[in-house]
Amino acid sequence: MRYVSTRGGVDPITFSQAVIMGLATDGGLLLPETFPQIGQEELRRWAGMPFPELAVEVMHPYMGDDISREQLSTLVERSYGGFLHPEVTPLVRVGEQYVLELFHGPTAAFKDVALQFLGNLFELLLERSGGHLNILGATSGDTGSAAIYGVRGQRRIDIFILHPHNRVSPIQERQMTTVLDDNVHNIAIEGTFDDGQRIVKALFNDLEFKEEYRLGAVNSINWARILAQVVYYFYAWSRVSGGDTSRKLTFSVPTGNFGDIFAGYVAMRMGLPVARLVLATNRNDILSRFVNTGVYQARAVHHTISPSMDIQVSSNFERYLYYLMDQDAERVRGLMEQMGRDGRMSISAKQQESVAALFHAEAVGEEKTLEQIATTYREFGYILDPHSAVGVRAAADFPGAVCLATAHPAKFGDAVKRAIGCEAPPPPSLQGLMEKATRCEILAADSAVIKNFIQSKLSGRHEQH
Fold first, then answer.
1. Residue 316: in which H helix or E strand, if any?
2. Could you give the residue ranges of the DSSP H alpha helices within 107-222?
3. If you ran DSSP here, which 8-state letter would residue 61 be given?
4. CB-based contact 264:277 (threshold 8 Å)
5. N or C: which terminal CB in the chain sees fewer CB atoms within 10 Å?
6. How many CB atoms lie within 10 A of CB 74?
7. What is the mean pLDDT of residues 162-175?
8. What is the DSSP string of 402-420?
9. Which residues are catalytic, by number?
10. 402-450 pLDDT, tens per residue?
11. How big, in percent rounded to 5, are the helix, strand and coil portions of the chain?
């Protein structure tokens, strides 16, 4: 299996090279040349498999000769052995819909499913090469803490995470800043998540700096993140369908960065029986506007009760655009250059029809989000976090849909309390966080400032590598 860039400027590379490269050196995103095809017999065989076993089946075809099945099995067991639920991502029936609980990892968010795996994968690849990696990422809330927990204390990795100052929930902020390991560097930027994302891309596109400081990506621009998330779509389908390959499911995905829903698209391209993907956004609705109008246009970022979705420019959208443009890298490059120049791009009416045939898109505002939390609790005794509530609300017309629950409701206590009058009981991983010591730098949302900070922190630390 080889990997190529959405912008066509990278010769095909291996899985390991793609993981370490993160963002393609031409500014694009890396994708496999082909998707492994899963037949009906395999789907039936996979149904009922424990999550770790299924993860090996889904992921190994993407790795070629880089990682053996035995090595992958060890990585998977190490990554998910610490999850609080034996099923890793259990499926719960809530009324007419299903809720896929993705929040049983160490930071109580869906990012743990991918980032526990990616942290262990990085460690394996760096031990093999004898190298060192400096991870740089921006977070709108959950990616940062999950990435930090995935690599904290690792000898061959330093991690620099940017989050928007005072624009993540108090618990999200503490989950990051209370990790005091020497290899963890938290930065609160005076700006939005989109500012952080822009800085990260600028530093990755500074190829001399990227190479000298061995920058690696841990957010969803890294293909391994997407790959690990593909697994739970197969897992949910197998639990609902029981292996009946005629059973097509609708998945509802709260999304801001298009990564989680793109994983569903990958699963569908591999052969998973998918009827529809419900793309659920909050007030920051660039993606739902695109599906419904064919126009992709950035606007001002609004601060909401579902902060992990407070995003306008979605990192993974370019991956889907590549397939929408029939894998024509030159057209993708032109559209992305237009977006960078004008803050806007559009597709043809025929292309928009094909997008709308696959995705049902809705933007769910604050009032409806709170109303959904209250209704679900009143009718079924189940507490949703505000992001998951956006997904459940958007799937209201799709009975039997699998709604992805992306965070534990205790992470967003204020919003939950507004909706139902009390906070959700915290899981063990969140208890006592607000009393712990913290470490964080508050810096300007400026790529030169962040670059200088990274250089000063790393100066002389890793000369042995």
1. none
2. 111-129, 142-151, 170-177, 193-205, 207-212
3. G
4. yes
5. C
6. 15
7. 93
8. EEEE-B-GGGGHHHHHHHH
9. 111
10. 999 999 999 999 999 999 999 999 999 899 999 999 999 999 999 999 9
11. 50, 15, 35
